[in-house]
Design a protein that fits this description.
The protein is of the alpha+beta class. The protein has two helices and three strands, in the order αβββα. The protein has two domains: about 30 residues; about 55 residues, YqgF/RNase H-like domain (Nucleotidyltransferase, domain 5, 2-Layer Sandwich).
Length: about 90
């Protein structure tokens, strides 16, 4: 009984979080690109890492990657990975 209730609560929470994410993403995607500026987007995640996407001044996708800034074993290498990505694409 308790497991069923917890499963229902988890399912409801997942659906709600997906709806909030979709609503926020839709608003961001409807914005026009910032003239002369590249944009780095980060989708935070603990289990599967933080997804990053770099977008050009014209709105084209330049690069994507996944980093794990919360993982003590990968923090230094992921920091370098992010720094190299930013340096490479100015």
């Amino acid at each position: 009984m308790t497991q069923q209730i917890l499963l229902e609560l988890k399912t409801t929470a997942e659906k709600s979080s997906i709806n909030v994410f979709a609503k926020n993403l839709k608003q961001l995607l409807l914005l026009s690109p910032i003239k002369g500026k590249k944009i780095l987007g980060i989708d935070p995640g603990f289990t599967n890492g933080c997804k990053i996407a770099l977008i050009s001044e014209s709105g084209d996708l330049i690069a994507t990657d996944v980093i794990y800034p919360h993982n003590k074993n990968k923090t230094i290498t992921d920091g370098r990975k992010l720094a190299e990505l930013l340096k490479k694409h100015e």
